[in-house]
Design goal:
This protein is mostly helical. It has a single domain, classed as Heme oxygenase-like (Heme Oxygenase, Chain A). The chain is about 70% helix and about 0% strand. α9 crosses α12. The longest helix is centred in the C-terminal third of the chain and has 28 residues. The structure holds protoporphyrin IX containing FE. Protoporphyrin IX containing FE binds next to α2, α3, α9 and α12. InterPro entries: Haem_Oase, Haem_Oase-like, Haem_Oase-like_multi-hlx.
Length: about 220
């Protein structure tokens, strides 16, 4: 039987391709969007990570989700520095969640509060993705909008506390494989992971509508 980390990866593969090739992501990576679109996207991430990380402290002592709460992953401070750079020191006053982002953050918060194993699905979908494809986005953002390499504007993608992302991802997969849950519960987590991808894709769709290309 495949390990849980393999099951979850395989199960979300199709949706990963969908997210990766969404119009908004393609336009962003293709250098076809302005920095305002990137800033709007970063704002949406702030709401998602606020939901992921505000519940983290309480989950740290949870037997199922606890091992996943690793401070070197936390992104909220980095996002806040990026937003201060992108929107100015008063960024908080202007930040708004798209309805799709609100729905995503609400679901994360709900899992964090009531279902620790479900929270793992959201944790995996975001942080392992940030450690992987996030690095491609960072490189493109630096080149397209001229951010200082690994500096303000792209700090979200820079994991200062993780020297070896490949090794970190390996041990993360081991954590997934060691999750204390029966098969039925693991299946529910896989379903939640697919939901997490769908919630991401919905945010991309909304951003794509807000930033259509004139060409
Ligand atoms: C243009 C956007 C994206 C690119 C270029 C990209 C690229 C990649 C690449 C190359 C990997 C493989 C890394 C490895 O094997 O170690 C990966 C893994 C992953 N990505 Fe993405 N990705 C993108 C968007 C996303 C999005 C939007 C999500 C979800 C929010 C996501 C979630 C993940 C996850 C969870 C993994 C880990 C899979 C695993 O090994 O279990 N990615 N991504």
């Amino acid at each position: 039987m495949d390990s849980f980390s393999t099951v979850i990866r395989t199960a979300s593969h199709e949706q990963h391709v969908e997210a990766e090739t969404s119009t908004f992501m393609s336009d962003l990576l293709g250098g076809r969007l302005g920095v305002d679109a990137y800033a709007r996207y970063t704002e949406q991430l702030w709401f998602v990570y606020e939901a992921l990380e505000s519940g983290a402290e309480r989950l740290a002592s949870d037997p199922v989700a606890g091992p996943f709460i690793q401070p070197e992953l936390f992104r909220l401070t980095a996002l806040e520095r990026d937003l201060a750079h992108l929107r100015g020191p008063r960024w908080r006053a202007g930040v708004t969640a798209l309805p799709a982002t609100r729905a995503y953050a609400d679901r994360v918060r709900e899992c964090a509060a009531t279902w620790p194993a479900g929270y793992i699905a959201h944790h995996y979908t975001r942080y392992l993705g940030d450690l992987s494809g996030g690095q491609i986005i960072r490189d493109k953002a630096e080149k397209t909008w001229g951010f200082e390499k690994k500096g303000d504007g792209v700090r979200f993608y820079v994991f200062e506390g993780i020297a070896n992302p490949a090794a970190f991802k390996r041990s993360y997969r081991e954590l997934l494989d060691g999750v204390r849950a029966d098969d039925l519960e693991k299946q529910r987590v896989v379903t939640e992971c697919k939901r997490a991808f769908a919630l991401n894709t919905a945010v991309f769709r909304a951003l794509g509508e807000e930033f259509p290309l004139s060409a």
